[in-house]
Amino acid sequence: VPAPRKPCPFATAAEIEAALVQAGGVKPLARRVGGHQHTLEKWCAELGANRRAAAGPPPVAPVFDTDDGSWLLAHLERLGDAATIEELADAADVPPRRVRDAAARLAERGYRIGGEDARVVLERVPPAPAGQIVPLPETALFAGEKVRLGVVSDTHIASREHRNRELQTAYHVLADEGVTTVLHLGDLVAGRGIYRHQDRDLVAHTFETQVDLAVELYPRLPGVRTLMISGNHDLEGEFGRMGADPVRAFAARRDDVEYLGEYDAWLELPNGAHIHMLHPGGGASYALSYRPQKLCESYEQGRKPAALLLGHYHRRGDFEHRAIQTLLCGTFEGSTALAKRLGLGQPAIGFHSIEATIADDGSLVDWWPRWRKFHTGRRLEAA
Ligand SMILES: [Fe+2]
Ligand SMILES: [Fe+2]
Question: What is the pTM of this model?
Answer without folding.
Answer: 0.66
